Here is the input.
Amino acid sequence: MASVDLISDHPVLLLFLVIGIGSAVGRLRIRGVGLGPAAVLFAGLAASGLEPELVLSEDVMELGLVLFTYTVGLATGPAFVAGLRGNGLRSLAVVAIATGAAAIVAAGAGAVLDLGSVEVAGLFAGSTTNTPALGAVLDATGPDGSGAAITYAIAYPAGVLVALLAASAALRTGPGPEPDDDIVAWAVLVTRERMPLGLLPSDVSFGRCIRSGTSEVATPDTVVLQGDVVTVVGPANRVAAVVEALGEHVQKGAVALDRSTVDFRRITVSDPDVVGRRLSELDLAGRFGATATRVRRSDVDMVARPDMVLEAGDRVRVVAPVAELHAVSALFGDSETQLTDIDFVALSAGLVAGVLFGLITFPGGLRLGAGGGALLAGLALGAAGRLGPVSFSIGHQVSTGLRHLGTVVFLAAVGTRSGEAFAASAFTVEGAKVVAASIAVVATAMLVLRWTVGRVAHLEGPAASGAVAGLQTQPAVLAFADTSSDHSPQVPLGYTALYPAAMVAKIVLAQLLVRL
Here is the structure.
């Protein structure tokens, strides 16, 4: 057919036809749940299943994979490293136990069903709905890896469905602990005779001090006196402890707020020279007589701690003398337009480092591949923020856009390269057996997770539901948990606690399964 020849002769046309059709299907929702980007994979499978000539190249597939994994690493790197410094070892233990159990069940199912090692690796990647793991398998096996893409596509829907059921069950275990990350700002009437603010807990910040009707910026060096009113910002339970130490809570509106000498403003971090630096490095108090009280990042408010590393797109709430606000804004950049700019030197350097790292062959023949190498490079550079004058941080909106683009490009290419074989095997007895094996694999991971999150990570309710999505590295499950929990802040906490480690673990385990 002329139309088929036209599309097969123009890969860019094929790519965006598959992405467009798949994305449209992915928007369809049944009880609030849809396939999302995964529908692009099935659109690609359908295209090449109907017309075997409609195939995208391996280079297109790898480009999409490294874009996706690198931007995931950049976005989750800071939280991942921070977790390692806190309760991260517990999260690593949970991930190791649950994903290891899933890999063992996948290997056992492969032996029972007489599947090859490549197909077993695809079964594992699909059951755990992990696209980079599939990419690592395909990168390691080359042209011989089509069987992995087939079992991945067959197993994927079951992986999503069982994880949704597990997330729903986790939500029914209870409301979970009361969140302590809701940020509040209270005015406190000081009843102590004298108190240096620097002696109070460091997990809160101070905005202004009102003394004899005059406002001044409150910093850790400020010494408050009896009768002063000071504003305290932080988690509600921590602020309450500060109130108890200083005096008494003054109800909102009881104190006149004079903004003629000291004012506050939300300022957007967009200047590359500031991105990736710690707040303490900016010396706001010394240079401007100013202080930062909170930072809003990805719709979440956080206390502005001195050791906080700033990311592009952060909105910093600054309290400063009126005359200095313009200078503080200029320091941070405060430009939405600047956030859309991409430093292609930094982006290219990070991707090159990741791809080269993925080419290294470790003892035992293990290789992370381009996707795994890009993920680890993203984690490391995202946590570092910058190296010398080069900032690796990307604005949240741009990073999300690149991540989604990489996902759909990769899935479109994988689908078109596996459609013919998928059509021949999906709707057969063997295909049904793969589905059953997938249910066994993901159910094992979810049962082990349910046991470990309560005993090792001490998560329950919404946090445990988020952990299900994190272990499964599945955005659709995260969206379901978020909506079903009435947007509990515990859901993303559980998700980010497991997501990066689960991503790396699955990439490594999938390659180990190939070598069985």
